[in-house]
Amino acid sequence: MKRILVTGGCGFIGTNFIRLLLEERDYEIINLDALTYAGNPENLAEFEGHPRYRFVKGRIEDQDLVGQLMEGVDAVVNFAAESHVDRSIKSAKPFITTNVLGTQVLLDAFRKAGSSGPFVHVSTDEVYGSLTKDAPPFREDDHLLPNSPYSASKASSDLLCRAAWKTFGLPVVITRCSNNYGPYQFPEKLIPLMIINCLQNRKLPIYGDGLNIRDWIYVKDHCRGVLAALEKAKPGAIYNFGGDCELTNLQVVETILEILGKGKELIEFVKDRPGHDRRYAMDSTLAKRELGWSPQEDFDSGIRRTVRWYLDNQDWWQRILSGQYRNYYQEHYGKAL
Ligand code: NAD
Ligand code: DAU
């Protein structure tokens, strides 16, 4: 049985990925997560005591801890990151610490332990920068032109992964994905924020003119892509994953309003995000050809499924809004977060 170190498993995508692994594979999983504001120990609470799952609270840039955990690990999937563009604009330092330094600490420990691999580094379409209206979607060999401190830190970590492959021959694989949506997404990101605000009859803040375009992918499709990369990718490979679903932010918000039967008067246009990327779109041809992967969920059903999840799990997001999820850790582990 393979032992996989998954980092950031208590966040949005990591949670969905670990659930997928436990359902569909027999790997042993160690989940290393710092439980920042975005990491929620409740997400995987039902697996506590599971014979193939262990949670460790800690930071990826903690060299001693990571060195210990890496012993006997076969492969790594690195989701841990500071992930929110708006926060990176307010303060870049945590992004450098986790995304850049943390990734290097993981790579060093992986090399020292002599793990067979692969080391899958989960990255983002934002490293490529912004597309003009008619430009073709991003490809893996496009230049990296990140525009926010977040995307610059992710591009830096991608380059450190590439350097580890080139210099030391580490079996590193980089995946770059477009905007995810689905269950367990922290309500600072566009889709959960809009659903929750709508449910509370609060204003829906849209940055700028609302015509920025994102390529939306259902989170389980991304997780299946990462799993395919873990199991099938060649060392040194880079794979784009996209949802083949380009929508303006306004279209996304109007869809949510329609599903919830609310009026457009809730929309409020607010000051634009500085350096706001206009358009992302991914060309996933390589992943389709080499990994046999393709997105399965279309936006129409995926967004309905997502809205349903937030309706059915109001306790989950209410506890986040009130900060109560932090009590869960205290009750279960006997100390405060
Ligand atoms: P998230 O913010 O929901 O979760 C991040 C997780 O990492 C949290 O559980 C947090 O506690 C943990 N973490 C943060 N700093 C840590 C540290 N120093 N040590 C250990 N754990 C730490 O993020 P997400 O949306 O699930 O994104 C996961 C990964 O996927 C990130 O690397 C992100 O760049 C990438 N990604 C996200 C998207 C998206 O649309 N959300 C798209 C493409 C790529
Ligand atoms: O593209 C992949 C990236 O997608 C990931 O790498 C990031 O981790 C993830 O956070 C996400 O980044 P974005 O900046 O695209 O996501 P966000 O949900 O913050 O914003 C999506 C779009 O919606 C963006 O154009 C900004 C806009 N927006 C966002 C918020 C939170 C609004 O108009 N209003 C808002 O309140």
Structural description of this entry:
The protein has 337 residues and is α/β, with parallel strands linked by helices. It has a domain of 234 residues: 3-Layer(aba) Sandwich (Rossmann fold), CATH 3.40.50.720. The chain is 42% helix and 17% strand. The strands form three sheets. Strands 3-2-1-4-5-6-10 form a seven-stranded parallel β-sheet, with helices on both faces. Helix 1 links the parallel strand 1 and strand 2. Helix 2 packs parallel to helix 4 and helix 6 packs parallel to helix 8. The longest helix has 21 residues. It is globular, with a radius of gyration of 19 Å. The two termini are 32 Å apart. The mean pLDDT is 96. Nicotinamide-adenine-dinucleotide binds next to helix 1, strand 2, helix 4, strand 5 and strand 7.
Task: Give a topology summary.
Layout: E1 3-7, H1 12-24, E2 28-33, E3 53-57, H2 63-70, E4 75-78, H3 85-90, H4 93-113, E5 119-124, H5 149-168, E6 172-177, E7 179-181, H6 190-199, E8 204-207, E9 213-218, H7 219-232, E10 238-241, E11 246-248, H8 249-260, E12 267-270, H9 285-291, H10 299-312, H11 314-321, H12 325-333
Parallel strand pairs: 1-2, 1-4, 2-3, 4-5, 5-6, 6-10, 7-9, 8-12
Antiparallel strand pairs: 9-11
